[in-house]
Amino acid sequence: MVTVRSATLAAFAQHRCSAILRTDDPAAVRPALQAAAQGGFRILEVTLTTPDALLHIAALAKDPNLLVGAGTVLTIDDAKLAMAAGARFLVSPVTDPQIITFCRQHDLVSVPGTFTPSEMMQAHRAGADLIKLFPGPANGPEFLKAIRGPLPFLKVFPTSGVTEDNLDAWFAAGAFGLGFVASLFVPEELAARRFDAIAARASRIVARVQKRFPLPVAQLA
């Protein structure tokens, strides 16, 4: 039986990258996310610290070509509001077993934040679908490679320290997928309304990810 959660996980396995917007500039939110989608990103995360985050999640969730989730989910109330807005995955900077359980109960994908191997195992045993690596250490890919040596079953999704230039190193180290935050939504470009630059960077990133993980022919049409 195909559930919403299983379909969401399948989308993560296909696309392998997400665009994560964190900004306090209300006027930049929608055009920035649209620029990422224009460049080819199909998984978009709107952090709940972003102005009118729930309204933007609700609007984007109406597009059947996009998979939209909420970031910085810290409480069950946050989770409920994000789910009501149409979020299909919930991301946190920390591991909260209650939120992971909430996701399982409501057919959502959980992506809790972890840093140490112990935290990663705690999240995995609590039922997390993906393991967010946050914050990213200076030697990110090497750090991940060392962790996945004894823990190869973890689906680790780094979202800090990930850039256009080092994405291949992260994947070579065993990252399941990558989240692009400020390296995609460059603050200076947001301030200057250079959404064309964001779209162009998104296109380059998606092309490089798809080179490693080619989409089915039907997805490329």
Walk me through the structure.
- The chain has one domain: Alpha-Beta Barrel (TIM Barrel), CATH 3.20.20.
- It contains eleven helices and nine strands.
- Helix 2 (29-38) packs parallel to helix 10 (195-212) and helix 3 packs parallel to helix 4.
- The chain has helices at 4-15, 29-38, 53-60, 76-85, 97-105, 117-126, 140-148, 167-172, 187-191, 195-212, 217-220; strands spanning 17-21, 43-47, 67-71, 89-91, 109-111, 113-114, 131-133, 156-158, 178-180.
- Strand 1 (17-21), helix 2 (29-38) and strand 2 form a beta-alpha-beta unit.
- It is α/β, with parallel strands linked by helices and 221 residues long.
Can you give me a brief rundown of this structure?
The chain has 221 residues and is an alpha/beta fold.
